[in-house]
Write a structure and sequence with these properties.
2 copies of one chain form a homodimer. Chain A has 133 residues and is mostly helical. Chain A folds into 2 domains: 74 residues, Multidrug-efflux Transporter Regulator, Chain: A, Domain 2 (Orthogonal Bundle), CATH 1.10.1660.10; 55 residues. The first copy, chain A, has 6 helices and 2 strands. The first copy, chain A, has a two-stranded antiparallel ribbon with strand order 1-2. In chain A, helix 3 crosses helix 4. The mean pLDDT of chain A is 94. At the A-B interface, helix 3, helix 4, helix 5 and helix 6 of A face helix 3, helix 4, helix 5 and helix 6 of B. Chain A binds a DNA duplex (30 and 30 nucleotides) through helix 2.
DNA sequence: GCTTGACCTTCTTGTTACTGGAAGGCCTAT
DNA sequence: ATAGGCCTTCCAGTAACAAGAAGGTCAAGC
């Protein structure tokens, strides 16, 4: 099938699919007119990458996971390690954002939000007091 | 003071401070030798931006917040609106990452992590079954 | 006076994972 | 023949810096 249909079936934009070919994640055949032709195998790889990306894996991690998937002699420990590291990173980011959320939420609650200029949000950003720790 | 000291006092890398000057967030004077000289006012702006960035505000949001801070006739409602929108965005991202975390966490727990090739993580990425919800 | 090392400058390039747009070829229907 | 919808490649831009090269400046020590 052509790229449009591949895009529709995988949910990935055509641009993204071309990009994935550029960086070697997928390598569709070409028709005589130069159009990409995607096989079932190509579709499968695209789906794999799409799902891995949706779980937050980087492109390089996707590449590694694809390689492991293709390697029948892999040890599942290796896959688990990649996923586990990624999990730790996600947790770190959630913690970071949660901290932001708490600090900022408190500031927003303290701000009157009226037509007067007094604003604890600006005061805090200006260094006037609490709530960064 | 020179850029190194400004960096140490604000906790921002020198590179970052130069970048902030490039994009007009701060405008230190220059000594006759061309070195940047940071005044207390410059330091204050850098601190402001640093704290705003730590709360996840984008550079453009920082620019707006700085302008509001300088504007004595501002309405706190305007500041609160910016902060509130940002809060919503943070919540969205936390929810997104939490969903990833849950899905991936479950897959990791299901993976034996031994020297055999069988791996539910890869199987799931390959499209073989559950857990993308 | 000279060297050394730490500091400073500007400029260019790279990062991540794409997205947008331009210029042009191909294909089908009318 | 032409219109449209698809396809191609290539170039530029995004966010927020970081890395590094080439070179100027300054204070200390010999």
């Amino acid at each position: 099938m052509n790229i449009k249909e591949a895009s529709q079936r995988t949910g990935l934009p055509s641009k993204t699919i071309r990009y994935y070919e550029d960086i070697g994640l997928v390598a569709p055949q070409r028709d005589t007119n130069g159009y990409r032709r995607f096989s079932d195998k190509d579709m499968h790889r695209l789906g794999f990458v799409g799902r891995a990306r949706a779980l937050g894996f980087s492109i390089e991690e996707c590449r590694n996971l694809l390689a492991l998937y293709a390697d029948q002699t892999r040890a599942s420990a290796e896959v688990k390690e990649i996923a586990h590291q990624h999990l730790i990173e996600i947790d770190r980011r959630i913690a970071e954002m949660t901290e932001m959320r708490n600090t900022l939420g408190q500031l927003v609650r303290c701000c009157a939000g009226d037509d007067r200029p007094d604003c604890p949000i600006l005061e805090s950003l200006a260094g006037g007091g609490a709530a960064t720790s």
